[in-house]
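Schema walkthrough. Field components (list of strings):
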Amino acid sequence: MPRIPAPPLPKALQPKPKKPGESNGEVKTYSQPLEGGITAVDWLDERMAMSGGLRWLLFRKVPRGINWAYTLGSATLFAFLNQAVTGVFLAMYYRPDASGGAYESIRNINDNVFLGQFVHAMHKWGASVMIILIFLHMGRVFLYGAYKYPRELTWVIGVVLLILTLAMGFTGYLLPFDQRAYWASVVGININAGGPFIGPFLSNFLLGGADFNATTLSRFYSIHMLLIPGAMAALIGAHLYLVTKLGISAPPWLKADPAHDGDHQLDEAPV
Amino acid sequence: MPDSRRERKSKYTLDRNIPGAFEGETVTRRRLMVLGANGVGALATAAFALPALGFAIAPIFKRQAWTWQAIGTPDDFNETVYQTKVITITPGIGEAGNTIAYVRQRDPSIDKEPEDQYNHWVALSDRCMHLGCPVRYVEAAQRFICPCHGGVYDFRGMVAGGPPVRPLDRFYTRLNPYTNLVEIGPRYSVNSELQRFNPRFPGEPLDGIGQYLYPSTFDTAKRP
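Field assembly_structure (string):
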């Protein structure tokens, strides 16, 4: 089975060439942990055979002429990971209790918990950053025509991800449970009810009853931290698979160059 | 697939030389096993997915109970001044379960809707019929004014301006003959003729085809 070539080592870690007549088979101390690491990776790869897939994912050929606008997708992914990590840890302190406990737990996070205000702010501002990045990413794809054949499905999944992200913003807005959160959610739920025929039932589902009640907050919390993130993670996986499988589209201003036909049109560079 | 190749296959397992085939057998054992395994898998999935789904959407179908809460004696209310009463529509969650009712005595000279045992006192909900913000009664103007998007209602709760699509919701009121206290009951919605409807969400008009576009949901209390 062909192996990937080992990554180049930093200079400091490379074994020095032996002086004439110096070594007679001694093992240098610094090379032992290094070989241990390589052995561990080999051990894993022998069982999981993941190195080919990782190389397929990470060392792709990309078209010439790409620019910084192509990083907006991974920037959005980074924002999602930020929301996921900070959200998981905020959930350790948050209490979805509509009779005052929710507001009190947020106040506790902001006032008492070490770095609580910082992590809360990362989650709050990160949400806005993610929305902004999504629209910039979407604008790049639209203006570059990157949604065209064969990448339509990638676009459709991206639109579903956009809707889910907006739903995350909607459900997350209630959780601090202050006056602004409460009334914004009431208005948002009533806007949902404005849809003919199914609107009232959708609002009833969101409220968990006829009016705002004890389970509304925990419903929003569950949707916000379990239902939508699970769906988003799965769809992001599909989105990234399609990006890798289909490759990145060249910028629209790049003319086909007969001198650089075939394989030469692709610069080999890691993205 | 060309037709000629399809025709060659008989639907009888015996004709296809499958070992152990019975006379007249059309379903192969492999096919039966695949269907059976998939069916059992679907059954097992439904066994946890359907109860979980029902659990999640059950509140939509739960009918609210009629509750009455006392808000004062008949002498507390007159025909010209609205009393602001805080009532609990969802018990157990503190302030988030409270709402405000503006209550006055019925004035036959301006309240033209038919009188019955439930409207000797007019109790208006403070929920704006645009998007549900709380309206405030301004005594000097005798208007209800919504802070969010500028909805305005007149003294009877009829729309006087702005985006609201119907008059302010109302509550059933009654006099409890045993305690001699005015009691306030469930909410109901009205159209611009003040006909009663099961409670609807704000933003849902009830004139014309509105009541059919926005059907009454299952969880509303049965009308008397």
